[in-house]
Every structure is written in C-alpha cells, then in structure tokens.
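Problem 12. The chain below contains 498 residues. Write out its predicted structure in token notation.
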Amino acid sequence: MYEDRIRRPALMNKVMSAEQAALLFKDGMTVGMSGFTRAGDAKALPAALVERARHGNPLQLTLLTGASLGNDSDGLMANAGVVARRMPFQADAALRRKINSGEVMFIDQHLSETAEQLRSGDLKGIDIAVIEAVAITADGGIIPTMSVGNSANFAQQAGKVIVEINLSAPLALEGFHDIYVPAARPHRGAIPLTTPWDRIGVTEITVDPERIAAIVITDSPDSPSNALPPDDETDAIARHIITFLEGEVKAGRMDPSLRPLQAGIGTIANAVLHGLIDSPFRNMTMFSEVLQDSAIELLDSGQLMMASASSITLSAAMHQKFIDNIEQYRERIVLRPQEISNHPEIVRRLGIIALNTALEFDIYGNVNSTHVGGTHMMNGIGGSGDFARNGQLSVFVSKSVAKDGAISSVVPFAAHVDHTEHDVDILVTEWGLADLRGLAPRERAPRIIENCAHPDYRPQLRAYFEEALQGGGQTPHVLEKALSWHARYKREGSMLVK
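Solution.
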C-alpha cells in the first residue's frame, strides 16, 4: 500500500499507529522534532503524546525543533504538561504563556547554533527524533517534506527515529533538498558553498535504518502561514528600502541583482519582499531561512532567479499554487538544513542583505526582537542574529508605533537587546530610513529620531537626547530615565506624555 513511500521492504513491519509509537517515549527524554515555521512538522506524534499524558501517564520532555511548529502542537503539548524545556524558537500563544509564567524553561538560541551544540555535546543528546517525510528510500534515507530545519542532525544523532510519512506531501518534493552536515570541529574544512544555487550534499537524510523504530502514516497538510497582507505602512517601509537599494546600485556598491536576500518570518518582512515586485531589480537571489508567499511571487515575476532556504511556509492559496506548479520550481528552490541556511561562514561569504523585524529599537540602534516590555518573551531571536552580525547589510524594520500609538517602537533605550548597535546598519519605519553606517552614537541618535520615530514621539526623544548630552559620554544616557517610557506604559497605558 505504501511501496512508493516506504521503499525498503524490511521497514514495512515498523508501520504502527501514533498511539503505539508514543509508548516509546519515557519521562525526561530529550526529543527532536522536525518542523520549521509551521512547515514540515510532525503531525501525529504531538497529538498522541498529549493523549498519553491526559490519560494518566505523565510525561515531561525536553523538546527541540527547527523553529515553530504548526497545528497548535506546541500549545497542546505545553497545556498537557508534556514540555518541560523548549528550544530554540516558538510562536504559539499557549506555549508563550507557559514560558512567561516560568512553567516551561525556554532557551532562546540563534538558529544556526542548535545543531552545532548537539554535535559538540554541549546539549544533552537526542533520545528520539520524530521526522516528517515524503518517503523512505531503499537505503533507509529520509526524504523531508516542506522543511529541513534541524531534522538531519536530529535523525543522525538520535538513539531512535520515528518517521511520519505524510501522504499529503507530494512525491514531487523529492529532489528539492540539499542535505549537508558539517564535520565535527575543530579540524573540519570550509563549507563548499560559494553561490546560493550550489548543491553540496545529497537529497535525503542519511540514517541507519536499524534505528528507525516506528513509521506512522499521516495525511495532514502544513498549517498555512498567518502573515497578514501588505498595508499602507508596510508598503511605505518597502518603498524606503527600495529607494535605499537603488542608491546603493547608483553608488556602485552593488549591481541591479543586488546581493542575496534574507527576510525573516512574519507580516512585515513578507510585505517588504512583496514590495520588490515593483522594483527595478532583476536576477535577484535569496539565501534565507524561510520562503513566504512573497518569495514565490518574486519567482513567478521573474525578478527572483532562485531561492535557497530551510523551509517553505505559505498561505493556503499560495501553497496550492506551489503544489499545482511544483515542477517549475524544482530547479529554482533549494531546501537546506538550518545550520547551513543560517551559517555565519556562508552569510559572510555571500554578502547577504538581511531584512529582519524589530519589536523596538533605541536611539543608538540597539534592537529588541524578542521581549515585550523587556521581560515577556514573544517568539524568539530565530535566525535574525545569524544574518545581522554576518551579512553585508543588516536592516531592521518596524512600524513606528503599536497599540494604536500607545507604544513607540523607537525608545531612549531598548528594554532588551538582541542585536547591539554594532550589528545594525539600517533602521526603517513607515516614516523613513536611517542609514547608520559610519556614524558614532551621537550622530546616530538624531538620524534615528528624525527619520524613524513617529512625529508624536519625536519631541520626547529629542528632549531625552538633549538631556543625556549634558552628562557626556560616548553613548549619552540619563540612566534614571532610560527605561522610564516602558515604566510609564506599564503604569499609565501609554508611553506618550500628554
């Protein structure tokens, strides 16, 4: 029945229900699950583990993934008490509540680092890997679905491997993947990738078939992207970036194909890429973590020549279009392990233009990507740090205000710093763009205030900066007032002085 999916006959006797496979898990285990931004995630085992826990068999696991899971799996497992510790990224409201209440220990990591730390023994080894697949080859190789993430590393290192064969994933996905796993440090050679379209590995995850302990059959699509369509503000942000990049081309710092693009997950990043459809740039490439709707639109327009990433996360309509026309994307999309898509060595070599989203940034260019009010985790740093520190251009975008203007995204001092001023080149809001290259802190502040802040908040920011200058210093601050805006919002419901 599944001969086209399970091509090694000896593995047919490993087919079982998700409930049976869930019995392989023991309390305290470390589990690696496939999935990267709602794509290619295990569908059946999370639900089966929740049911097992609900029927009087408590289970607490350390759960590692590529990034966020779909199908509400993170929240369901968190609410059932299955997740004790989680890394490296999440985007689920229920899990977020558990993290911020201290019930789940969350380790927020750069996405390029998890596999490296597992390989080096810095993290506890994987007991069970759960990997979603299109098929298993005759040699026992696992062909991933719409993401690779950390799956290759989990499968190669785990004591046991459970494969979820997803019948909704077309066999035509075979061949999209380029699986390359670096050798152990310290004497490994360079990663032999010099262009975004290079293929340096194999098309399946190599694993000893003897370690495949169970095969579960599913037929469930990925959760669709929840990114919102572009609006007037994100269109304005896109126009500022396009004008800036046109200036870079005119100045001779890059040609009209630009440098390879990276864009973070979410509404604003997706909208900014969408704006490039009306740009003068041609023959562009992407070397990113995630391909969203805008990447497919750019491929269809012909402006994007090819795209390399670790996952494809699309709206329902765009996903159907992708599946219906999958052959036309075969030579133009490559899916890689996230330690390759995000690897600092490659990001630096290729000269990536990194476009990522900020929750807030301060007048000197420090960026908070993760913590609301400096204390409460939103989703995580993801891969933004991998690209921001190592790319040729590090661009962070944000709408200038939130909560109907009660919160300014430009503040005197970021309440939590994920990306220091040293790693940030360009800041953009709907009001304008601040090019910070070559500027000292005292020069950065006026440019950020006048170009990026909402007009309602500019007088307050100017007043803070002028007062800070009176105290002197390389990076002037009024320490007792640096976080007063956040305190005011918590106390009065608005950062704006009325």
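Discussion. The first strand starts at residue 30 and ends at 33. Students who got a different answer should revisit the alignment rule from Section 12.3.
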